[in-house]
Design brief:
Number of domains: 2
Distance between the termini: 52 Å
Shape: globular
Low-confidence stretches: none
Mean pLDDT: 85
Number of helices: 3
Radius of gyration: 17 Å
CATH architecture of the largest domain: Roll
Strand content: over 45%
Structural class: mainly beta
Oligomer: single chain
Number of strands: 10
Length: 183
């Protein structure tokens, strides 16, 4: 179609038990918009897909030319090589948002990262009145329950709000304390 832009993005998807990697084709959408699009897609269709167990995420157990992941089973996901997003595609880029460090415990993993908010920071309101299934945590680090030695950092991790079991604001000084306890 004229005027449409199609591009493949390499993504990794964390479910409660698996790490799934593959190429996702996006057409005139950002990755976050695709995840939150309930009208058109309830699945994530991948090409050149691999799957590994979270107990050993470096060992691929299967490779497939195409695969489908049901969106509600995704705990967290991220682009491996995120492309810069033009301001014209960022709907609320003109709104000032303040970053707030949070700790999130979810099915099979924990994430530390910055949650951006435009108003008074209220975690209860975020969870109760969420209009989207996924929200981004920036400057994020992910740690797996079944493999504490595996940790990864990404500029942005999209978190499935329905998979959150615990979320809390990290106060100044708490982050260093929790990281030391983990070591």
């Amino acid at each position: 179609m004229p005027g449409t832009e199609s591009f493949a993005r390499r993504v990794e998807i964390l479910t409660p038990y698996h790490l799934i990697s593959g190429d996702l084709t996006l057409v005139d959408q950002r990755f976050s918009d695709y995840l939150n699009d309930r009208q058109r897609e309830s699945t994530i269709a991948l090409h050149h897909a691999t799957i590994a167990r979270l107990t050993d995420p470096g060992t691929v157990i299967e490779r497939h030319s195409t695969a489908v992941v049901f969106k509600p089973w995704v705990v967290a996901t991220y682009e491996l090589f995120p492309a810069p997003v033009a301001l014209s595609r960022r709907l609320y880029s003109y709104v000032k948002k303040d970053p707030h460090q949070v700790f999130v415990a979810m099915d099979g993993m924990e994430v530390h990262g910055d949650l951006h908010s435009t108003h008074d920071f209220d975690l209860k309101r975020l969870v109760v009145t969420a209009t989207e299934d996924y929200f981004p945590l920036t400057n994020a680090s992910v740690r797996l329950y079944v493999n504490p030695d595996y940790a990864c950092r990404h500029d942005a991790v999209m978190v499935n709000i329905h998979r959150i079991r615990y979320i809390a604001r990290v106060e100044a000084g708490q982050e260093a304390e929790s990281i030391q306890r983990e070591a």
